[in-house]
Structures are given as C-alpha cells and as structure tokens.
C-alpha cells in the first residue's frame, strides 16, 4: 500500500464566514485590526469575542462607540447529534444586539442561524455557517462589504409563503381569517 492509501481521512472544518460593514469604514478604518486575507483557526473551547479591547477580544474593532466586549460566539455540538452550531451572546450593557431582527439585551444569547445578519449601532455583519466535521476547532473567514449588507443580501423569509401566493396579513387587513378549502372546490 502507498502512503496515500494509509493516510487518515481528512475531516472538513466548520467555517464561520463573517462579512462586515459600517457606513464610515473608509474614513474611520475601524476594521484595520481584522485580518480579511486568510482563514483563522479557533479552538473549540475558546470563545470568539468581538469588541474594542484588544487584550480581551480576539476580533478588535477600533471604535470608541463599540463596547469593550461587544459580543461573543461560542462553538458547540448539539445534544444527541453530530451537528455543530454557534451561540451568540450580547456582552454590551449599553448597546442592544439584533440577530435577524431578534433583539438581545445584555447577557441574552441565542443560537446563530446558518445565515443571518447581526447588527449593533451602525455595524452590520452577515454571518454564514459552512458546516464541517472537526470537533477540536473551527475556522473564521472575515470579509469586508463595500455596500450595506441589509440592502445587498436577501435572507430567507421567516414568514411562510402560502401556495396561492396570498399573504395571511392580507386577510387580517380585511378583517377576515383564512379558511381551509379542498383544492377540488376551486
């Protein structure tokens, strides 16, 4: 057998892609401490912190309006599955954090959806999870957006769209409730 045949099977690595945007990023250069050129490995037991304090935060934002520690991302494995996920926690006492319009106050945390927009102040961050198998570490890959993310990206709708294409809010605005009918009644 060759060494190629005897080599261990490569495992894929979970990668968290984060695309940053701020309207003043050209003149204020608040992202100059972030490395947008390469993927970075993060140990699974480390918490990835984002904020102003470079001695505590792995990802430092150079802006006095950003909290010392703004938020953290924690990598974990879901119970009774082989799937991995991320939990986001707001660590700012002054600034609320929103994840796809879900508002998080200080110390509130939720699971990070596979694709979402994280907002605080004027910051917009598109987070996209690329699933992998490795359990000892994950990777981050940072990107910089030139245009606002909220206008650029279309996230999956949180509202189900009915087959007939008529939104339930249409019925509510007319004082009626939707009624179920058999397709043969049409």
UniProtKB/TrEMBL annotation:
It is found in: Cytoplasm. This is TRAF-interacting protein with FHA domain-containing protein A. The keyword tRNA processing does not apply. PANTHER family: TRAF-INTERACTING PROTEIN WITH FHA DOMAIN-CONTAINING PROTEIN A, TRAF-INTERACTING PROTEIN WITH FHA DOMAIN-CONTAINING PROTEIN A FAMILY MEMBER. Pfam families: FHA. InterPro entries: FHA_dom, SMAD_FHA_dom_sf, TIFA. Keywords: Cytoplasm, Immunity, Innate immunity. One of its GO terms (cellular component) is cytoplasm.
């Amino acid at each position: 057998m060759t060494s190629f045949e005897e080599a261990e099977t490569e495992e894929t690595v979970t990668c968290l892609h984060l695309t940053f945007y701020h309207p003043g990023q050209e003149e204020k250069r608040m992202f100059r401490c972030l490395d947008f050129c390469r993927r970075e490995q993060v140990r699974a037991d480390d918490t990835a912190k984002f904020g102003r304090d470079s001695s505590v935060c792995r990802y430092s934002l150079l802006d006095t309006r950003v909290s010392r520690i703004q938020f953290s991302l924690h990598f974990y494995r879901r119970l009774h599955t082989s799937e991995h996920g991320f939990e986001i926690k707001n660590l700012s006492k002054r600034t609320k954090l929103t994840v796809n319009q879900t508002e998080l106050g200080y110390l509130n945390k939720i699971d990070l959806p596979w694709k979402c927009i994280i907002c605080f102040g004027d910051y917009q961050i598109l987070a996209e999870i690329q699933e992998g198998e490795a359990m000892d570490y994950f990777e981050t890959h940072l990107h910089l957006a030139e245009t606002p993310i909220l206008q650029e990206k279309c996230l999956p709708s949180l509202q189900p769209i009915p087959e007939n294409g008529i939104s339930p809010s249409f019925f509510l605005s007319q004082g009626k409730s939707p009624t179920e009918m058999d397709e043969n009644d049409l």
